[in-house]
Here is the input.
Amino acid sequence: MTGKGQMRRCCSRCCQHASCLPFSLVLCLLQPRLPGLQNKMKINDWSAIQSLFDELNKRLDRTRKVADNVGVPRVYVRMLVELEDFLNDTLANRDLKKKMSPTNAKALNTMRQRLKKHNTSDEFGDLVTKFRENPQDDEEEELESSSSSESEAENDAEGKFEDFEKRPAGASKKKDKLLSMDSAEITYEMVAKKLRDIATSRGRKGTDKQEQVEMLQFLANVAKGVPQKLEVLLQLVGSLFDLSPGISNYMKVGLWKRCMLVMLEIMDTLTANQHIVLDDTAEPSEDRTAEPVAGEDGMIRVWGNLVAFVERLDDEMFKSLQVIDPHTHEYMARLRDEPVFLALAQ
Here is the structure.
């Protein structure tokens, strides 16, 4: 019988080839941030657009570190073209530019320079030109649509167990007041209080786990400062693990990928903020009412331990490989998920 170590060594050899990184995984890394970028474009928030643009590029670079031959998804090129057109329209609107805050205007100018350099580079210049010449490529659109559908199907499959059941008609819950507030009105203390409430209610009977996940996703977007955002994301990973059906069964693939996306976002945030470190001896977020301050060494310490999360993801992948029939396409598709996990573990 093949041992656990032997199986992983086999998978690692397999994952050295670019073909083992499926196109759907590249889309999985990029697509969750595209709607957020489009929403920020609607409200003309160039500071947020700049942050999301940088994050998308980091995610694309991360996949290329694993497999050099991974292509650029057409949905990403479409985003570059739409963002360039929107930027040009904004620059041409003098009245709108006059109403911008100094911070927003500075971010707009930064994006103008950065996007021009990005879209005319050797790597993306030809892709942008070809897209403008042929915005509708049925063959490529069909490929990305099918890849996206696979990911959606996996998420739909998660709805088969208890935590994803839809509420019956008429059983509507009162919407949390925080969700209806403008992000500018939400304070650090409000986010911290909601984090404490979620932490204390985890594991209690009758707690809506899916609702907690949705609230944490919202809090990640309105968190005040990078340390608090990291605290929210770390708690979000834990809550996503809570959605797993139990020890006796493996985590659904779609849910596993969602955990991976949050973990990659945590890693990107830490990489961009070298003065922040995770430390499991630091004061837990639920015990703190103010933003953490830097220590004598100039480092800000946020409570957390990524090693435990990585080990859990590793265990869940191995459990799925034990359960899935090795003679099926599903098994081969699961093996191809490992390159992204290896990129995270590195």
User: Anything to note?
Assistant: Residues 1-23, 138-172 have pLDDT under 50 and may be disordered. The longest strand covers residues 276-278. Residues 132 and 241 are 42 Å apart (CA to CA). DSSP finds 16 helices and two strands in the chain.
